[in-house]
Structure formats: C-alpha cells, structure tokens
Design brief:
It catalyses: alpha-D-glucose 6-phosphate = beta-D-fructose 6-phosphate. This is Glucose-6-phosphate isomerase. Helices cover 40% and strands 12% of the residues. Strands 2-3-4-10-9-8-7 form a 7-stranded mixed sheet, sandwiched between helices. Strands 11-12-23-22-20-21 form a 6-stranded mixed sheet, sandwiched between helices. Helix 3 links the parallel strand 9 and strand 10. Helix 11 packs parallel to helix 18, helix 18 crosses helix 19 and helix 19 runs parallel beside helix 26. The longest helix has 22 residues. The structure holds 6-O-phosphono-beta-D-fructofuranose. The site of 6-O-phosphono-beta-D-fructofuranose (F6P) has 15 residues, from loops.
Length: 813
C-alpha cells in the first residue's frame, strides 16, 4: 500500500529577484524561483500554475511560459514552510487528488553537491513534478533547483523550505513578507528552463559514468592490493633500473619519483588510465579555450595569461582573441607601473608613492604574496624594489588592517583593490577601510581615491569599481571570467602589485618560466611529462593507496608562502564530490594539502610524518641558494647544510629503521620499538637550479597543471568552487542577526534562530559580553573588560606612539 503524507501550504506568490536573493552567477540560464508562502488556499494556485505550464509546454503563451527542450515545462517552484502535515490521503487538502503528496516509495535522487545525505528523497506530484525533500544540508534553494533541472529528467522541482537547511529556509522566509499581492501570473511567466539541458542519464547507468567502473581503474586497485601493499620501498630502491626510469627533466627541473610506492607496472597502469580518461585531449581542450568549466559555462585559460606575443591570435573565446587581450592588459600594466616607479604618478598631496597595499583575499592574494616573498630575496628583486614597500591586506579581521598600515604614510601609499568580482565581503570592507584611512589623512575628496586607489577586477564589475571612486580608464586592470581566482596570479592580480614593487621586467620573467612549463605540459609525451607524472602519482596516492593528505616542503625560506597558495589552488579545485556527469563519486579524491619550509617543518610536524600517519611529501630543493653563506670555520656552506636535510628526509621516510638497526646502535631494549621507523612512506623530490622569478613561474605552472591532471583523471570540474560560495551566503544570515541585535533599542535583545539553539546561544553570549565590555565591567578578564576602544579616525595615532603598540591608552583599536 502506498502511504501518502499530506502537506498543507499557505500560499501567496512572489517573484524572486535572483540577483538580490541568491547571487547572480549560478548557471548561464537559470530558471528563477517562484515562492509560495504557506497556506492551503493558495496551494490551489500553485497547482493551477503547474497545470497552465503543462498545457503551454513547447509554445509560449500570453504568460510567457517558456519551454524546455525536453518538451516539458521547466518551472522551479519553492513551496515554503508547511504547517503540520501527517500521514493521510492526498485528497485531504481538498485538491481533488492533485495536492502535493509525499509518497513513501518515491524515487531516490542522488544528493545535491551541497548535501551531506547519500540520497535525497523525492516527492512525486500527480503531473510529473518532483520535489526534493528531507535534506537539511541544503542551504541554497536556487542551486539545488538548478542542479536537479540540469541533471535529472525532472520537469519541475518543488523544494519544501521547511525540510531544507536553516539557511535555505531563512532565505525564503526573508523574501516572503515583501511579496507583492496577486503576482501569481508574473511568477509563472518568468519561469524558463535551460535551453539545452544536458543529456538525461538513467539512474541505472550512473555507475557506468564513474571512472571507478572502468577496467583501467579496477586493474590499478588490484595491483595496489596484490603487488604494492605487500612490498616495501626499501627493496624497491635497490633496483637501479627502476630508479633510472623514475626520473624526469625539463628546462632545469629535475623530478625524482623513485621514492613513490610505484613500479614500472604501476606507471603503465596509470598511463592506461590517463589514456582512458582522454587526458591529452582534455589538456588540449583546456589550452584551446573549450568551456571545460561546465557548471559556469566558462573556458579555463590561465595558460593564456602567460602566452607569448607570438601566440596572439591562437586562442579565441566568443570570437575574441584572448592572448591579444592579455597582452593589451600587460602593456597597460607596464606603462602604468613604469610611470609610477618613475615618479610620474604622484599622490594627492604631490608626494611620490612608495608603499603599495594590495587588498584582496583567496586567489586575489595568495599567489601574489607567495611570489612577492620569493622576489624579496632574489638578486634582481632586491635591487629593483629598493625604496618600495609592498604589503597584502586579506583578512577582514581589523587587526590585519592595523598590522598592515599602522606605520604607513597614506600620502605615499597606493592601494590596489584586487577582486575579480569586486563584491567579496572581506575585500570590500577592507577596501572601504583603506579608503577611509586615506580620507582621514587627506580629506574627504573624490580625487584622493582617484589618485591613491586602483583596481584589478573583471569588466562586469566596472560600474562597481567606478562607484567606489576609482578611475576606470587609468586605474582599472581587467580580469577575465575564463580565469578562476586561484589561477589568476599571472594576470593583473599578480602583475600589478609585483610590477609596482619590482618592475615589470621581473614579472615578465615569472611569466616566461610559467610558459616554459606550460609548453612542456602541452607537448611532452606523458611518460616524460612532469605535471602529468605528478598528477598521476597524486591520484595513485589518494585514490588507490588511501593517503588523504599531502605535504609540500620547500627547502627554501623564500617559498614560505608556496604551501598556502598550493593549498588553496588544489583544495578549492579538487575538493569535490560530483563528477562531470553529475554523479556522486565513490572513490577518494582531493588531498589535504599543507606545508612549511624545511627545515622548520622537520621540527614541527615531521614526527607524525615519520612515525604516525603516512603523508606523501613533495620535497623541493635548489642547486644554488639565493644567498649562500660559508663562514671560515665551517666545513659546509649553510645551503649545503640545508640541502643535507633535503636529501636525508626522503630516504628516512622510504627506508625507515628496523628494530635490528636500532639495537645495533646499543639502544636499551625497552626503547627499541619506540625508535623503530616502519618506512615505506612515499615522497617525490624536485630539484631546481636556483629560486628566481623564472623558476617560480615553472613551479607555479607545474602545480597548477598537477591539479588539473588529477581533476581530469577523477572526472571533476576543477575550476568551480560552489562550496566556497555556500559559505559566503551563510555568513550573510548571521550578519543579519548580528545587525538586528546591535541595532535593537531593547538593551538585551535576544537572537533566536529557528531550530538552532546552539548558535543562538553562543551568539547571545558574544553579544552580551561585548555590550558588557563597552559598559565597562572593571574586570581584568578580557572577555568582560573594556580594554579596547575603536578609534574614530586613523589619523588619531600617526605616526604610531610607543604605547600604541600595546593597545594602551585606548589609542589603538
Ligand atoms: O575563496 C573563494 C574565492 O571565490 C576564490 O576563488 C577567489 O580567489 C576569492 O574568493 C576572491 O574572490 P574575488 O577575487 O572575486 O574577490
């Protein structure tokens, strides 16, 4: 017997403004949501709308209901919170058997990417619509509606707000009170499905859409279990033929992967898998400008950012010569930075500008910062940067503002706002803070902003950039939507700050290095191709050997920020769970990437790497130091000392130390086991000539392409980042609660978040204690005492006084 649960809905209809409510950049053609507040009366109207849409499929009518290619209406309707509901007949609501009904044996849908459930229960309705219910992990109603319309053979989607996540519910409920009356027709009229839905995939075929179902994958699994797991690296490393075959070179880069837990057969099987996945074609598609970022319908062309002038006219997107455009922007960067460094561009008060503050976060910060750290001690960089100071402001923590600019003279400071979207909350607040900082010192004049603030942003953000007060003709350097933030360091995001600080010529050397590795990646046969080999080894370690983390250890202090950049690059790219066919993957992908320079890391987390969990490591070393030292009484130079560790660690990890070896050193028996190292821990060693701008470009490109290879093998879209988008929206809800509390007339306004007592409680604790602190509690406990006072203007304490550093006298916030 089919049990049917009724749901009662109050209904009044509004059209949701996508851009206001859910962000504007989801799918290229996204059907807008129509919202129906709860109420029985209007449920009838929902159903009538559905019926009208059904009748009007395949031809637009007066209501402009658009068709889908599938031949069925593509309405997306969100039905908001129901009241009650229970197990009963679907007739109970009085809709003649056509009400929204939950059927116990409803089909199971694969979960949406934002869901934590393994399946999503579907509600069927009589005329073929499908509702997604029972998944509290869903926080973005538009995204899930779009997702199912794109990937399932579903003509319509109803989302029940009361059964979605808290944030989705809140988003819907926020809109409802603003509903204009009697807009039902309009709500239906704006619905239009995607014009070309992806091919429908029957659920039974879904398994076959997984790379894990291929014979190549299964052979690797068997090989891992039968050949590799029983073997030890100690023995493998004795085989000189094997070791000989596990070296690759290109343009000064030397890769040694002999200490990976692989044999020649493993590599053969991995190359077979690459073949099966069409790796070479996918690489060519990427370089050629195909729209491989399919969830955003975008090309992926960070390689065009460093293409040479001789490649102008070789790649087109939407009829536009992308390399030509890149060089136009680079030429502008060169002209602007040359003029700045020649003192032709001066500040508002006529002073020459020497300080550069780059405001941006994520990809708009990490890449440029890692490059800056390298160039600080690079021989050419040392000279070209003399007299200049470059800083990065990323965190929205006000302390980051303090740390970045407390000792800078605003009259001599240029601010670069680096944001592809020019909407990122952290960056925009920091940008406004820096603008205020300038105004505090030089007066609230539009010209202050025009002369002291420039932007790196996408063309679509031009109006926002202008509204901020920036001169969009002279002071805006463009991004393209075919470059993701984390892949953008070779574009304006890196070009502008680095060229201002070090001169354009040095930045160009960085591009040349990246280009050299790009060409190698595109053209070298897979068995000699360093990024392909490293990508395949990444897949091997993660998916077949089960190592879920990975460390990057540069034996070069100047690369101290490389691990942070690669962490974002890789984890934001391959931290995914749905493959390109819209199927949930059933194999491990994506590593937890982390790292620190050697030797510091050895005295930090290497204990675990040697004797705890197995963490594959990339060791990066350099033949020559940027600055070597050899003191009279020392037998080795400091660089040799450093490099001794670079050579020793991989062997220690691979070979380990047996109990016999420990005993032979005279170790007391009770300590022997504590001193045993099981070894068999994989690593790769990369050796480069010397850390220069050029080599840094090679390293960057190498790791970008490693990430792409892994994504291609795993069948992921490595170029979107919906997980981060979700996080951005969640903070908006919290901010609204905070604003309510802060603006409340009632002294002890309490935050109540529906169904979320834990967050309500901790937020109330925060609000109460911050109020008490301002009122002054007299306690020395910083939680309840008023030790900090937000200053009103930045000018209050410039130049900084001794006391400012301790935050005393209320002078520093
Ligand atoms: O962290 C998410 C992200 O979207 C990154 O990919 C991007 O680099 C960063 O935010 C900053 O975005 P924007 O450049 O638009 O300010």
């Amino acid at each position: 017997m089919t049990m049917v649960k009724s749901a009662s809905y109050l209904v009044a209809t509004i059209v949701v403004q996508n851009q206001l409510t859910f962000g504007s950049s989801f799918l290229v053609q996204r059907p807008p949501l129509a919202l129906y507040p709860t109420g029985r009366q209007s449920l009838r109207r929902v159903m009538e709308d559905f019926e009208r849409m059904g009748k009007n499929d395949n031809h637009d009518d007066d209501n402009k209901i658009s068709k889908r290619d599938s031949g069925r209406g593509g309405a997306v309707v969100v039905a908001a919170a129901h009241e009650g509901g229970g197990t009963t007949n679907d007739d109970e609501d009085g809709h003649g058997g056509r009400g929204i009904a939950v059927v116990d044996d409803a089909p199971q849908l694969p979960p949406h990417p934002s869901s934590s459930a393994t399946t999503t229960t579907a509600m069927t309705i009589s005329d073929g619509g499908v509702a997604i219910v029972g998944d509290h992990a869903i926080t973005d109603p538009q995204a899930i509606a779009d997702y199912y319309l794109q990937h399932e053979n579903i003509p319509r989607v109803i989302l029940r707000a009361d059964l979605l996540g808290r944030s989705a519910h809140a988003q819907i409920m926020r809109i409802l009170p603003k509903a204009p009356p009697s807009t039902t027709a309009a709500a239906v009229a704006v619905n239009s499905g995607p014009t070309s839905p992806p091919p429908m995939i029957a659920t039974s075929n879904r398994r076959r859409q997984l790379v894990s179902s291929t014979p190549e994958w299964k052979r690797l699994q068997r090989h891992a279990d039968e050949v590799i797991r029983p073997s030890h690296l100690r023995d493998m490393l004795r085989d000189s033929n094997r070791c000989e075959s596990m070296i690759a070179h290109h343009d000064g880069v030397y890769l040694d992967y002999t200490r990976q837990r692989v044999t020649a057969e493993t590599m053969d099987l991995l190359f077979d898998l690459a073949e099966r996945q069409g790796l070479r074609e996918r690489i060519r598609d990427m370089f050629g400008g195909e729209r491989i970022n399919f969830t955003e319908d975008r090309a992926v062309l960070h390689t065009a950012l460093r293409a040479g002038r001789d490649e102008i006219g070789s790649v087109y997107v939407d009829g536009v010569d992308v390399v030509g455009e890149v060089h136009d922007v680079l030429d502008r960067v060169r002209r602007f930075t040359d003029a700045f460094r020649a003192g032709e561009i001066t500040g508002y008060t006529g002073k020459r500008m020497r300080n550069i503050v780059s405001v941006g976060i994520g990809g708009s910060y990490l890449g440029p910062e890692f490059l800056h750290e390298v160039l600080k001690t690079e021989s050419e960089g040392i000279n070209t940067s003399l007299g200049y100071d470059l800083r990065f402001l990323a965190n929205v923590d006000p302390v980051d503002v303090e740390r970045t600019c407390a000792d800078l003279d605003p009259e001599e400071t240029l601010i670069i706002v680096v944001s592809k979207t020019f909407t990122t909350a952290e960056t925009m607040l920091n940008a406004r803070t820096m603008r205020q900082w300038l105004w505090d010192f030089m007066g609230d004049d539009a010209d202050v902003v025009r002369r002291h603030v420039i932007a790196c942003s996408s063309v679509s953000a031009t109006e926002n950039v202008r509204a901020f007060g920036i001169d969009t003709n002279e002071g805006m350097f463009r991004f393209w939507d075919w470059v993701g933030g984390r892949y953008s360091v070779c574009g304006a995001a890196g070009a502008v700050p680095i060229s201002l600080m070090y001169g354009y010529d040095l930045f160009e050397k960085f591009l040349e290095g990246a280009r050299s590795m790009d060409k190698h990646f595109l053209n070298a046969p897979p068995r000699e191709n360093i990024p392909i080999i490293m990508g395949l080894l990444g897949c091997w370690n993660s998916s077949f050997m089960g190592y879920s983390s990975r460390a990057l250890i540069p034996y070069a202090q100047a690369l101290l920020r490389l691990p942070a950049h690669i962490q974002q690059l890789d984890m934001e790219s391959n931290g995914k769970r749905i493959n390109r066919h819209g199927v949930e993957i059933d194999y491990p992908v994506g590593e937890v990437d982390f790292g620190e320079p050697g030797t510091n890391s050895q005295h930090s987390f290497f204990q675990m790497i040697h004797q705890g969990q197995t963490v594959p490591v990339d060791f990066l070393g350099f033949v020559r130091s940027q600055h070597d030292l050899l003191m009279d009484n020392e037998k080795l130079s400091s660089h040799d000392e450093l490099m001794a560790n670079f050579f020793a660690q991989p062997d220690a990890l691979a070979n380990g130390k047996t109990a016999e070896e420990v005993r032979s050193e005279g170790c007391p028996e009770e300590l022997v086991l504590h001193k045993v190292f099981d070894g068999n821990r994989p690593s790769s060693s990369l050796l480069f000539p010397q850390l220069s701008a050029y080599v840094t470009g090679q390293i960057l490109s190498l790791y970008e392409h490693r990430t792409a290879v892994q994504g291609f093998i795993w069948d992921l879209n490595s170029f979107d980042q919906w997980g981060v988008e979700l996080g951005k929206k969640l903070a908006l809800d919290v901010k609204e609660h905070l604003m309510e509390a802060r603006n409340s007339e009632v002294g002890d306004h309490e935050i109540i978040i529906a169904d979320n007592p834990a967050t309500s409680r901790i937020m109330n604790y925060y609000i109460k204690n911050s109020r008490d602190a301002v009122r002054g509690g007299g306690s020395s406990n910083p939680v309840t005492s008023a030790t900090s006072v937000t200053r009103k203007t930045h000018k209050d304490h410039f130049p900084p006084q001794i006391n400012d550093l301790g935050g005393l006298s209320g002078r520093l916030s």
